[in-house]
TrEMBL record:
InterPro entries named in the record: DUF72, UPF0759_sf
Organism name: Parafrankia colletiae
Cross-referenced Gene3D superfamilies: Protein of unknown function UPF0759
Protein known as: DUF72 domain-containing protein
Lineage: Bacteria, Bacillati, Actinomycetota, Actinomycetes, Frankiales
Pfam families according to UniProt: DUF72
Length: 283
C-alpha cells in the first residue's frame, strides 16, 4: 500500500536553503526533492521534449519507487490538438524511456477548447500510443463537469484504455478573493471547474490548489483525506499533488497531507527522511 504525494515542480527559488541545499547544481535538485516527496508533476516536458540523457539523469537521481506524471508536450495537445502527431508522440515516448517504472502516467492536459465532440479523437490518439505506459487526461471544458452525457462520453472512452481522468480541484482557492500577488496571478490563470472525486482506475491522480495561507490549504483538503483514505482501503494507489499559488511551502504541505492520511491508515508506508538543506555540524 502506497500513497504518492508531490508538487508541481522539483525546484523553486523559495525552497533553496529550506527544503533544498543552496547552492545546489541543477542536476542534483531532483535527488534532494525526492527525499521530501515520492512523486512530482512533470510539467517541464510540456514545453519541450527532453533528450534521453536528461531523462537518464532524472532516473539516476531517484529510486525506482519514485513517480513522475509526465505531461505531453503542448505541441501535441494544444498546438496540433492531437492531430498528425504520431511522430512527435513516438519521439516523446522514446525520450522518457530511461525513466522506466518511474513514469506513473503519461498526462494529456487538454485545453479548454477540447470539448465532447473531440472525445473520439482523444480515444484514437491514446489507442495509438500503445500499451507501454498508463495514460491520464485532464480536461477543462465546462461540459464535462456540467453535462452527465458529456462526462459519460469521456469515461467511456478512457475505460477501455485503463486511462485516468485527473481532477484539478481549485474549488477551495476560488471560495474567496485573492489576498496576495501570487493569488491574484493564479486567480486570473487557473481553471474554475467543479469538484470531481470519482476514480476510474486503481491509480487515481489528484491535483489540489489551496491558498498561500497554509492552514486554509489544510482545512480545504480534508475532504480529499476522506476520499484518498477510501481509495487506499479499496486497494487503489493514489497520487496527490499539492499546489498553492506561491508554492513556497508545497513540499512541506505535501508531506503534511501524507501524514493526515497515514493517521487514518497507519499501515501506509512512510515517506523518506529529507536530506538536510544545510550541512550537519558537530555542535
Amino acid at each position: 500500500m502506497r500513497l504518492h504525494v508531490g508538487c508541481a515542480m522539483w525546484s523553486h527559488r523559495s525552497w533553496q536553503g529550506r527544503f533544498l541545499a543552496h547552492p545546489l547544481p541543477a542536476h542534483e535538485r531532483l535527488r534532494s526533492y525526492a527525499s521530501w516527496c515520492n512523486a512530482v508533476e512533470g510539467n517541464t516536458t510540456f514545453y519541450a521534449t527532453p533528450n534521453r540523457e536528461t531523462a537518464l539523469s532524472w532516473a539516476r537521481q531517484t529510486d525506482p519507487g519514485f513517480r513522475l506524471v509526465v505531461k505531453l508536450p503542448k505541441t501535441i495537445t494544444h498546438d496540433r490538438c492531437l492531430t498528425d502527431v504520431d511522430d512527435i508522440a513516438r519521439s516523446f515516448l522514446d525520450a522518457i524511456e530511461p525513466l522506466g517504472p518511474r513514469v506513473h502516467a503519461v498526462w494529456a492536459q487538454l485545453p479548454a477548447a477540447f470539448g465532447p465532440a473531440d472525445v473520439p479523437l482523444l480515444g484514437r490518439f491514446l489507442s495509438g500510443l500503445g500499451t507501454g505506459h498508463r495514460y491520464a487526461v485532464e480536461v477543462r471544458h465546462p461540459a464535462f463537469f456540467e453535462n452527465p452525457r458529456a462526462a459519460s462520453l469521456l469515461t467511456s472512452a478512457l475505460a477501455p484504455l485503463d486511462a485516468e481522468w485527473i481532477p484539478f480541484d481549485t474549488t477551495v482557492f476560488f471560495r474567496s478573493p485573492p489576498t496576495s500577488d501570487a493569488e491574484r496571478d493564479a486567480w486570473a490563470k487557473k481553471p474554475r471547474t467543479p469538484l470531481r472525486t470519482a476514480a476510474l482506475t486503481d491509480r487515481p491522480i489528484v491535483r489540489y490548489l489551496g491558498r498561500d495561507d497554509a492552514e486554509r490549504t489544510v482545512e480545504g483538503w480534508q475532504p480529499w483525506v476522506d476520499v484518498v483514505t477510501g481509495w487506499l482501503r479499496e486497494g487503489r494507489s493514489p497520487t496527490v499533488f499539492i499546489h498553492t499559488p506561491d508554492n513556497a511551502d508545497a513540499p512541506l504541505l505535501a508531506r503534511r497531507f501524507h501524514d493526515d492520511v497515514r493517521a487514518r491508515v497507519p499501515e501506509l508506508e512512510a515517506l523518506p527522511t529529507p536530506i538536510p538543506a544545510e550541512p550537519l555540524t558537530l555542535f
